[in-house]
Structures are given as structure tokens and as C-alpha cells.
Amino acid sequence: MEVQGKVALVTGAGVRVGRRIALALAGRGMDVAVHYNSSRGPAEATVAAARETGVRAELFQANLGELGQIEGLVRAIDDAWGRLDVLVNSAAVFPRTPWPEIDEATWDATLDVNLKAPFFVSLHASSLLRRDGGGKIVNIADWAGLRPYRHYLPYVVSKGGVITMTKALAKELAPEITVNAIAPGPVMLPEEFDEETARRIADATLVKRLGSPDDIAQSVIYLVEMTDFVTGHVLVVDGGRLIA
Q1: Is 36 among the catalytic positions?
Q2: For the chain, which domains are there?
Q3: How many CB atoms sit inside 10 A of residue 85's CB?
Q4: What is the pLDDT of residues 89-112, one digit of tens each?
Q5: pLDDT at position 170, please?
């Protein structure tokens, strides 16, 4: 895809990996719709940084756990640009939930944001993506969706769902829209992890180091700009952790 002057929506673009993805797309010449739910200050900083690259960037607030707000988000982007070429479903929650602490509220909140939301954003954005001949969807999954780990069961179930959803959407939306997923490994550890834990995780990868959010952002660039012949694929970006 030629990305100069095209429009991308990145959900959860105010912080962490979503921010790096939004700025990477802006750096390639794309106008960026910066979505946030509650992190308005960081999202404003993402918009400011994107505008410094010379593109147009706008702020869009929505609680993706509510279908009406998803519909409103897509309408707002249509009103602002009249087009959408790339959707990156990055917004997610990551609650640590040991087995005895799993309850219905945590389960619902996790799957609403991590699985239900990217599906319905994709559903409502698909007509806008098709308007100018087609577009691309990139879902941010997790390597834990392929190899679950303990104490995050609702999260890993949601990311496993994202992987299956990606393949199903690729079939439903072909040929106009390609749909792929990126499954990050250890690129941004939870804040509560200490240096010893981080070192053990790095040593468990084949490359013996942690990744960074920029590794994920550059993988998005590959799927968006560098190839038009990949769809229904899950790109694992984990330094070899999955097979170690």
C-alpha cells in the first residue's frame, strides 16, 4: 500500500505500544486518528508528536466496551476525513488474575475490551475501509494466545480469540481488506516486574534480550506498507520465545 496521505486509526494510541504504532505510521506519512479511552493527556502528547512529522493527527475518545461509542468513533473519523485506509486494533487491558480471583466482572471487562471491541471496530470500520477500494486491519494479539501462561487466564483467552478472529475476518473481508495479527512476546513487561524477573524473561528468548515497542511498530509498517499479499497471518514478534 502507498501510505502517503492515507488515514490510519490506532486504538489505544495514547500509551505503550499503541503510541509507538501511531507515531511510526505518522512517520511514514499517514494521517492518524489517535484513539483513547481515559488517557487523554498521553493521547494529546501522541497527537502533538505525530503533527511534528507534518501529518494531520486528531484525537478521538471512546469507551470501546460500549457498542454505541464504537459506532460514534467510526462516524467521527468519517466526518473528519471521509476515508479510512488502515485500522490497528491495539487497545487492550492486561489484568493479572490468579485462578481463585477470576470472577464474572473481570472476565467480561477483559473480553469486552480485548476481543469484543476489536471485532466491532472492524465490523463498523469495514465499510469505510472499502470506500476507496480496500484497506488493511492489523490486530495486536499476544504470543500467550498461542502458548498460555498462568495467572492471566481471561487475558490469554481474549488474545487467543483475537488470533482466531483475525483468520475469520481475513476470509469475511477478502479480497478488498487484508487482516493480519501481530503477536508480541516480551517487548514491554508489566511495571511490577523487577530486574531479576526481566533478566530471566530475556534469557528465555533465543536472542537473549527483550524487545521494544518499536519492534511491534515496525512489524505493523511491514504489514501495512511493505506487502499486499499477506492476509490471515499471525506474525509472532517474540525473539524466539515461543519455540525456546
Answers
A1: no
A2: 7-237 (3.40.50.720)
A3: 24
A4: 999 999 999 999 999 999 999 999
A5: 98
